[in-house]
Specification:
Elements (H helix, E strand, L loop, with lengths): L3 H5 L17 E5 L4 H12 L3 E6 L8 H4 L7 E4 L5 H11 L3 E4 L6 H6 L1 H20 L6 E5 L25 H20 L10 E6 L3 E2 L9 H10 L4 E3 L5 E3 L1 E2 L1 H16 L7 E3 L7 E3 H12 L4 E3 L17 H7 L7 H16 L5 H18 L11
Parallel strand pairs: 1-2, 1-4, 2-3, 4-5, 5-6, 6-11, 7-10, 8-13
Antiparallel strand pairs: 9-12
Helix pairs in contact: 2-13, 4-6, 6-7, 8-10, 10-12, 12-13
Length: 385
């Protein structure tokens, strides 16, 4: 399995996190070369996990997965999750104990241009992963990551709860709502709770508007900012008044990892869905995000240009994370200012060629875990779990 010994050298650093649930475990991550997937893969190596990643391609140039050198510490499988037979072969060969499914077509604008591809990847790919879990007895836990866009957004002022109506008026949102419905159908039909406890334990997660270092995707706000600032150009904003629950990438990942750890311990949360989002104070309009990011960067201006294709873009979206607080004792850690600061500092370090980004990213994870412990979050060893 790849250069696992290299990853194991880091075990003493973070194995106390998440009740030491991942040390020595075989973990399969789909979409591991993506923005969130690469950060999750990095964190799992520090937790002592044996990681195999499945992704169709490197999603951008530059690419965080390559910058971090993760190809040297995990098994890297180039495979599209739409290819069921090949995906089954990977599951059969590696026999993962835990599956994190992140692979997706995640760009809203691209979903308008390629709706069929979006549904085939986001819905069909999720079904394929569920089929592979069905066919692999060693899988104990599956955490299926969808999106906060799975809710039918009526732009009310309070946060969406996990039992609110699913839906979507655009291909991306609809594909994520479909994925959630498919997961519930599989859970109720094939992964029911049993007295013997032999069925895999699954849960879905919903988070969105994640920012942090290492994202270079097209048509996302922070990557667009970085590209403009590096070229010393104005940042172009489509909707400066759109309000989003901005959160650092490590926030929802801590939720995914803690949920996975809890599913390994008990079937109480099997079949549940969880929102992972920031405190309401972190819900800020795009213009405030851009202004603060440019301040931390040291310079930068912006201008407003509306969308040219007439695509709908919601202006307000909030999540209620009361369920995660109640069942997982999980809440977000960082303020809006620290979220933006850590993001800007990561990119500045990268573009200044200031040492290893693997080491720099590890320090950001350590800082985040330390802040979580100081707030007595159980996953970080700061309280009762």
């Amino acid at each position: 399995m790849g250069e696992w010994k290299c990853a194991m050298e880091n075990m003493g650093i973070m194995t106390h996190l998440f009740d030491n649930a991942y040390s020595g475990k075989r973990i399969l991550v789909t979409g591991h070369t993506g923005f969130k997937g690469s950060w999750l893969t990095l964190w799992l190596t520090f937790l002592g996990a044996r990681v195999v990643g499945v992704s169709a391609h490197l999603p951008s140039t530059p690419c965080n997965f390559s910058i971090l050198g993760l190809g040297d510490v995990v098994d890297n499988i180039t495979l599209d999750v739409r290819e069921l037979d090949k995906l089954k072969e990977v599951f059969h060969e590696y026999q993962p104990e835990v599956v994190f499914h992140l692979a997706a077509q995640a760009i809203v604008k691209k979903a308008y241009a390629e709706p069929k591809l979006t549904f085939e990847t986001n819905l069909g790919g999720t079904i394929n992963v569920l089929e592979c879990i069905r066919a692999t007895p060693n899988v104990r836990v599956g955490v299926i990551i969808t999106s906060d866009k799975c809710y039918q957004n009526v732009e009310w002022t309070w946060g969406y709860r996990e039992n609110d109506r699913l839906g979507g008026d655009d291909p991306y949102s609809a594909s994520k709502a479909c994925s959630e419905i498919a997961c519930q159908a599989y859970i109720r039909s094939f992964f029911r709770k049993s007295e013997g406890g032999t069925s895999p334990r699954l849960a879905t997660t919903r988070a969105g508007n994640v920012i942090g270092g290492g994202d270079w995707a097209e048509d996302r706000i922070i990557p667009d900012c970085v590209r403009a600032l590096v070229r010393k150009e104005d940042i172009v904003i489509r909707n400066p008044n759109a309000t989003r629950p901005w959160q650092h990438v490590l926030e929802p990942l801590s939720g995914y990892l803690w949920l996975g750890a809890k599913l390994m311990q008990s079937d109480k949360l099997h079949g549940e869905a969880f929102n992972f989002g920031p405190d309401q104070k972190v819900n800020q309009p795009v213009r405030e995000l851009i202004k603060l990011f440019a301040d931390y960067w040291g310079y930068g201006g912006w201008r407003h240009e509306g969308t040219s294709g007439g695509e709908k873009e919601n202006t307000l979206l909030k999540l209620s994370c009361d369920k995660a607080l109640h069942y997982l004792s999980w809440h977000s850690v960082l303020t809006f200012y620290d979220t933006v600061r850590l993001t800007a500092e990561w990119y500045k370090s990268y573009y200044s060629h200031n040492g290893s980004m693997f080491d720099y990213s590890k320090k950001q994870i350590e800082y985040f875990a330390s802040e979580a412990k100081s707030q007595r979050l159980p996953w970080a060893g700061g309280g009762d779990s």
